[in-house]
TrEMBL record:
Entry annotated with the keyword Oxidoreductase: yes
Domain of life: Eukaryota
Protein name per its UniProtKB record: FAD-binding domain-containing protein
Domain FAD-binding: 42-380
Xref: Pfam families: FAD_binding_3
Record family assignment: Belongs to the 3-hydroxybenzoate 6-hydroxylase family.
Naturally occurring in which organism (per UniProt): Glycine max (Soybean)
InterPro entries per the UniProt record, alphabetical: FAD-bd, FAD/NAD-bd_sf, MOase
MF annotations from Gene Ontology: FAD binding; monooxygenase activity
Transmembrane segments: none
Amino acid sequence: MATTTTSSFAFLKSHTHTKTLFTRRSYKAIKAQSQTDVREEQVVVVGAGIAGLATALSLHRLGVRSLVLEQAQSLRTGGTSLTLFKNGWRVLDAIGVANDLRTQFLEIQGMVVKSVDGRELRAFNFKQEDPSQEVRAVERRVLLETLASQLPRDTIQYSSQLQRIEATPNGDTLLELVDGSKLLAKIVIGCDGIRSPIAKWMGFPEPKYVGHCAFRGLASYSDGQPFGPRVNYIYGRGLRAGFVPVSPTKVYWFICFNSPSAGPKITDSLELKKQAKELVKNWPSELLNIVDSTPDDTVIKTPLVDRWLWPAISPSASAGRVVVVGDAWHPMTPNLGQGACCALEDSVVLAKKLARAINSEDPSVEEAFRSYGAERWPRVFPLTIRANLVGSVLQWENPLVCSVRNNIVIPKLVRLGPLLEHTNFTCEGL
């Protein structure tokens, strides 16, 4: 931690009784090791996902070098795609990669909502609701590769899984990796995802399962996919699905279903695809055809989780010179399409504040992190709650309630404009 205040040591003390994935040892023991044993770094970013790479690239654009630690042997390019609204694109514009991505992915013009029997309940045009709106589904693999390609060589250190984190009285942080190597970092930025070890060390609880899971896949059409540029939703009882064209040859889809528990982890891709199809076997044939057109190894199943950042109860986003970003801090359900967008927002806000502190020493790094948390909390906490509530409404099972939703609420009451207000985010260039 940055200072030896009573509160900071009390915070550290509270972690010493937990399982020693992370422990604290004396600073003398650290300093006693030879310089060849401990490598010193100014800024270490833990995790080479969207948040980690965007943060590292934002810092790079601002003249601050960082080292990114990634536990995998290469970029984790699995998964399917993610939808980015205009706030995400404003960030990608600011860090200089948006135009490369725009040329590869279709701009989505609107959305249509249907019932299980194929009846159209409502259709919206994004530009009519908000002329400045920009919506595209982006392959996660391509986004990561694009961000990584703009970083200086050797910025990302692969096969670097974190084993232990130790605080020192002068505010530095010792990071020990599984392979036994050690780094002494002035600043640590945790971008290590939903199950973040950094967040756990800082005192955050595990993300909470929200009661439903999702199958996802990326269908491939070598001769061109047949769908128009719009998001397609199908709402049933305790079950919903959707699909959206990603590119001229690929279509992203999901099937979300209620489940009392997350269930066992299944790695057999054929079994996952079979289960997904079974859920919607009597639904519109175009959805089943999309699932059939999906390579088996791209089908995944994930339990949906989030973490609510209660004021005065939840830990703050930073502890001394350690800070968390994106899913490591505020995992949210995908019902608003804002998880990746908010992670991108975090990255530029944090990078600007941190670069200013490093270059001027006024304010301090600790104060820059506190300012980041104070600015971002009112943004991400309400969005996490809203995404959760939207998901709960869309997963209703009661037949009467679903009938009211399909025949009154969606056709006559829902207005898309107010639902898109959360995509308003001003982001100046770096």
